[in-house]
């Protein structure tokens, strides 16, 4: 039986690792955040009252074995001058439409997964949109993922809340089952406070992560994130993740050892003033986690990214241990 790997996160980082893993002999599941309230996803969650579809769309494409022309259409985003369709991705609209038609987002995802011939499973962490809340290191409270990101303030803690006080948060039972039956849980890569932790802190998910027998791996970011994780080392990222998990749950940390050339990253293009995440292997070891330091760096498009093939190979080797 293929080993079961569960990826947890959101944003653009997860698909980079998923694409090469799809080619391996593994049973792959992605659990994605439902707290995104910006861009096309934010508009659709407000107007159609569905979970934000953007991260789900990107994961479906990463897992797909369908014709590239179909994937290009699914990912196509309308131009800014197209009035009310401006900036909406076709895939987001299809997820919204199928959710209305079936009455259940899981059924909508299952149907799209069939059309796109995906290899794996995609589960929203909850079947309802959630609001991300944050407390800064100075004690200020922030609400909404887009607002938290835009604030560029150092964060201490995040949690999720229902969209209205009378609602209760219910974790997706499919996500819980996947966590409990996994051989490996992989966090990231992605924004610590706005892509990874919004999944971890969902009631029911957190408890499942505390009791699963799976090996738990954190892929440390290559660059810090403006405001949120300025000057964070890889060990400090790990400490925040473990604190939100409620205990030291991470068994291994994948951390990049290659230097990012100072003049390569176009910070203006990527909208951030960030620095390379520094390594602190001793502090990681004190958290009872194995340090896996490798060259994971891929330089492209004037930015520093993870090389998905290199990361996937290391994950597969950890599975064999």
Automatic annotation (TrEMBL):
<dbReference type="Pfam" id="PF01933">
    <property type="entry name" value="CofD"/>
</dbReference>
<dbReference type="InterPro" id="IPR002882">
    <property type="entry name" value="CofD"/>
</dbReference>
<comment type="similarity">
    <text>Belongs to the gluconeogenesis factor family.</text>
</comment>
<protein>
    <recommendedName>
        <fullName>Putative gluconeogenesis factor</fullName>
    </recommendedName>
</protein>
<comment type="function">
    <text>Required for morphogenesis under gluconeogenic growth conditions.</text>
</comment>
<dbReference type="InterPro" id="IPR010119">
    <property type="entry name" value="Gluconeogen_factor"/>
</dbReference>
<dbReference type="InterPro" id="IPR038136">
    <property type="entry name" value="CofD-like_dom_sf"/>
</dbReference>
<keyword id="KW-0963">Cytoplasm</keyword>
């Amino acid at each position: 039986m293929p080993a079961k790997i569960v990826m947890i996160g959101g944003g653009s980082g997860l698909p980079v690792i998923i694409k090469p893993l799809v080619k391996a002999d593994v049973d792959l599941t992605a659990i994605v955040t439902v707290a995104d309230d910006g861009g096309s996803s934010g508009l659709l969650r407000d107007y159609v009252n569905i979970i934000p579809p953007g991260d789900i769309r990107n994961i479906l494409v990463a897992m797909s074995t369908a014709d590239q022309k179909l994937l290009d259409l699914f990912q196509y985003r309308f131009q800014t001058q197209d009035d009310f369709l401006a900036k909406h991705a076709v895939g987001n609209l299809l997820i919204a439409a199928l959710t209305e038609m079936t009455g259940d987002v899981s059924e909508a995802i299952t149907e799209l997964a069939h059309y796109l011939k995906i290899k794996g499973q995609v589960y929203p962490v909850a079947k309802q949109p959630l609001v991300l809340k944050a407390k800064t290191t100075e004690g200020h409270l922030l609400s909404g993922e887009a607002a938290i990101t835009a604030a560029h303030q150092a964060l201490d803690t995040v949690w999720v809340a229902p969209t209205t006080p009378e609602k209760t948060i219910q974790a997706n039972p499919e996500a819980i089952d996947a966590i409990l039956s996994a051989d490996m849980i992989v966090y990231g890569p992605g924004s610590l406070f706005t892509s990874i932790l919004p999944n971890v802190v969902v009631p029911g998910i957190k408890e499942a992560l505390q009791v699963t027998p799976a090996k738990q791996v954190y892929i440390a970011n290559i660059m810090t994130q403006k405001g949120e994780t300025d000057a964070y080392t890889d060990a400090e990222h790990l400490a925040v993740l473990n604190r939100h998990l409620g205990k030291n749950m991470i068994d291994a940390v994948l951390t990049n050892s290659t230097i990012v050339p100072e003049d390569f990253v176009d910070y203006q293009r990527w909208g951030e003033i960030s620095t390379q995440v520094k390594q602190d292997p001793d502090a990681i070891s004190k958290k009872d986690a194995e340090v896996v330091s490798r060259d994971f760096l891929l330089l492209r498009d004037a930015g520093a990214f993870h090389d998905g093939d290199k990361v996937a190979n290391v994950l597969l080797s950890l599975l064999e241990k």
